[in-house]
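Contributing new records

If you add data, match the layout below exactly. Sequence lines come first and carry their own label; structure lines follow with theirs. Keep one chain per record. Anything else will be rejected by the validation script.
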Amino acid sequence: MALIEVVLTYRPTGMGESAPVALARTSDPDVILAVRDRVLAEAKAAAEMWRTIDPGLFIMHAAECERLARVLDVLAPIYSGLSLVGQERGADGDEEVTP
């Protein structure tokens, strides 16, 4: 079975290109959920930023957010409850579409 883990990296800046250096890694489900939630929130925010500026870019970013959510759901099916752009989970766990 594949292992899902979160890796904290340091990417030095300055002269020349430097590869990222792994500082820590964890497969703790709570950390994975927190990172997943934050990544999806940032993807949703990026899409929402474009909603009124450029509808075409909004659609592109929204599709990327949905793709990311599906990929994360496939890679870590035990971590259910992914929320796509325009969808939120209600208290009962059902999806509620937001305008």
